[in-house]
Specification:
Mean pLDDT: 92
Structural class: mainly alpha
Strand content: under 5%
Order of helices and strands: HHHHHHHHHHHH
Helix content: 55-70%
Number of helices: 12
Radius of gyration: 18 Å
Number of strands: 0
């Protein structure tokens, strides 16, 4: 791995190597790592299955998202593919706990993939920011969802969801800002972490969790 190559975070070992490279790149992050230790790599399935899980998880607690995802997979005897979800009636999807907006989003994504308007495989060879822009062609997919998909489902080590509230709070605390970092401010800070921005995101999420624990906030 060179300082100019985006890592592919395939497993914990590749993440750990990228994590070490990140701390060498920006020693300001070492105090955070002293608090968190090595974060665990987060991964989801690639393709429509993983993107569905990311959409389901939008604006929900981890527990609620897992419950709905399980109900959805039970309703289809496994993770639904785009053809199956597109053919499903709304009542069947509502019974799994999906809201009307998420049903519209998932059906719109499924239709775009079935028609070939968007090809999820196309993003694998694209630079991280360009890949995120491409994914926002999908209905209901903003930059946060696109970056989360790239990071968790494809293991793209330079994907960075600068609009994530937890990352903004963690950065504000870590760097002594008067409050949480703005999305644009965090995006600017993260430029120093290329091509390991996704690794830095894992560190900031871990730091956010440690911060909440320190303040006595519920997990």
């Amino acid at each position: 791995m060179t300082a100019h190559t985006e890592p592919l975070l395939q497993d914990q070992a590749t993440f750990d190597a990228a994590f070490d490279a990140l701390l060498t790149l920006d020693p300001r992050l070492k105090p955070l790592a002293d608090v968190t230790g090595r974060p665990a790599l987060r991964r989801r399935a690639p393709g429509f299955e993983g993107l569905t899980a990311v959409v389901v998880a939008q604006q929900l607690s981890v527990a609620a998202a897992r419950s709905i995802q399980k109900k959805l997979e039970d309703a289809f005897d496994g993770p639904p593919g785009p053809h199956a979800l597109l053919a499903a009636d709304a009542a069947h999807l509502r019974s799994a706990g999906l809201s009307a907006p998420k049903i519209r989003t998932l059906k719109g994504i499924a239709a775009a993939l079935v028609s070939g308007t968007v090809d999820l495989g196309h993003v694998e060879g694209m630079e991280a920011d360009a890949a995120a822009d491409y994914l926002t062609r999908l209905p209901g997919i903003g930059t946060w969802t696109a970056d989360i998909y790239l990071l968790f489902c494809l293991g793209r080590g330079d994907a960075f969801p600068h609009g994530d509230l937890a990352l903004q709070v963690a950065a504000g605390d870590a760097f002594g800002l008067p409050g949480r970092a703005s999305a644009m401010g965090l995006q600017a800070i993260a430029e120093d972490w290329r091509p390991f921005r996704g690794v830095a995101a894992h560190l900031l999420w871990a730091y956010y969790g440690a911060r909440r624990a320190r303040l006595g906030a519920p997990a």
